[in-house]
Amino acid sequence: MADAIPEELNAAIQIHQDGQLEEAAQLYQQILDDNPKHADAMHLLGVVRHQQGHHEQSVELITSALTLHPDAANYYSNRADALRMLGLVDEAEADCRQALHLRPDYPDAWHNLGATLLRKKAGPKRKSRSAKLCSDVLIPLAPIQHWVMRCASRGTFEPLWIVTSRP
To answer: What is the pTM assigned to this prediction?
Structure first.
């Protein structure tokens, strides 16, 4: 049965990436039914629940996955995104910083940190610095494509998709 789980997980991930969230959730749950301590399936089920708007359930699932795999930067970054959606910006910021402590070159964590700091509404100067920091870090980290954030005059952010060509 242990050999079947990676194949099942890969199938679930493909379905998830194709946007079939409920089908992916069912596959992740089947993996967890067979192996309740499968951290990746638990984490990814939490990501699906976040994408479906079930942020509290997402946080619970990803928190459980973190008890099994506490050094997973992507788990912290994804939990931060769900926490931010719940309005728990201090906790989200702490998760982003933990993700960056574990993996300083992780663009998603930088993006989530910038979004979290902007959400905190700490004043226009701090927002501008936060967005600039994220932009300055993301540009060299993801040379092909990446998200960059910028502050608008009203103090909100908008994601900006930048695609650069390979040399």
So the answer is: 0.73
